[in-house]
């Protein structure tokens, strides 16, 4: 009788395991289809939407074109070389931002320009970046279901790859950094633990406990370059860097005493490379402007700013939402001018752009799905002893919202959903901590529902807004 019960119990457990595997297989297949669908819609928007249809695209295209034959950041005061054409109505040029995006990806644009000049060649680099990210997630999604939380449930994350913007590079780097941080078998953790590419611990490192194995050093340099590029990117992705820093410091504290020295050495090497890249970029500005970069920016702003944003324009004639803090306005004044600031930020986070009217059903459904996913993660993590992780990531997410508010108050009142994309990445990390939650069919269904609804809106609604059939007909007739 006991033998029979044992056999029956074994069959039940086996059937349960097979059922779990089948559910995971369905989740993976659906996720792959959603990611491929999002990529195809992004391609359609990239090829068929007319120039300038997207945020700041005329200015950014000019930056890409100017950098095609350049390899170093210019002095913003250069005259006679066409740099002035890259200045926006805000009185500055993105070419002189810290990011190397334009210097690097303009060369890819140049290649595509040779055989597709009538098509938007300048959007091709970001489509390639989305292809890389899509393939990366598809390869990892079977074992890392949580990756969909970082890329599969938000239209804005797909949209930034369909036009030319440096945000695409920043998001890609931040996503890869979080994916590696969350996966203990990743390149990051293999490097920090002194393992070879095959995943085996290097015998020299294990025996001597140092970082001076050439393969480990090269891996640390690669990681340092990645983090260095993130330091040169948009400031709102610093939240991702801070999350990485805290997790790695906690890992160092919890590591065995015998391993701390070698682990700390690798940390120092990675951080040293990253900050050396940042310092090199800062030194170039120091060479150009000395300690008077602010004066140079003010000079260019007077020359190129639109009238309502020009510092020489009388204050009463300037745009009231531009540099509100410097004009003596209180933060509350900003919300009085734009009382829908939070609603508009959310709308442009869940979709491609701000919608003042209509589509309330979509935004309501997505809001409920987002709340359900985040609350479910929080409840699970708190029940399983990960309260500090959940609280820390939640504080980071709130910080991202506060940073977006301050950006509107200090610079220009523009509710922008892309400023909140780091919230996705912190949530993705929370998802990686809630391993057991992904065995629950209901939670997977909620994640897939959020992804499917987003894809349907992206493909059926956003395309109608962003693609002009008249432009397409003219394009096909060329």
Lay out the secondary structure.
Elements lengths: L1 H47 L8 H11 L33 H13 L10 H17 L6 H5 L3 H5 L7 H16 L4 H6 L10 H6 L5 H18 L6 H17 L2 H33 L3 H12 L26 H7 L3 H10 L9 H24 L3 H24 L10 H13 L7 H26 L2 H9 L1
Description:
The protein has 478 residues and is an all-alpha fold. The protein has one domain (2-477). Helices cover 67% and strands 0% of the residues. The chain contains 20 helices and no strands. The protein has helices at residues 2-48, 57-67, 101-113, 124-140, 147-151, 155-159, 167-182, 187-192, 203-208, 214-231, 238-254, 257-289, 293-304, 331-337, 341-350, 360-383, 387-410, 421-433, 441-466, 469-477. Helix 1 runs parallel beside helix 19, helix 10 (214-231) crosses helix 12 (257-289) and helix 17 (387-410) packs antiparallel against helix 18. The longest helix has 47 residues, at 2-48. The relative contact order is 0.12. The mean pLDDT is 90.
Number of strand segments: 0
List the domain count as a whole number. 1
Q: Can you summarize the main beta sheet?
A: none
Element order, helices and strands?
Answer: HHHHHHHHHHHHHHHHHHHH
Strand proportion, as a percent range, falls in under 5%
Gross morphology is globular
Task: Work out the helix count.
Answer: 20
Average pLDDT taken over every residue: 90
**Could you list the spans in which at least 5 consecutive residues all have pLDDT below 50?**
none
Q: Rg, please?
A: 25 Å
Instruction: Assign a percent range to the helix content.
Output: 55-70%
CA(first)-CA(last) distance: 81 Å
Which class do the helix and strand fractions yield?
mainly alpha
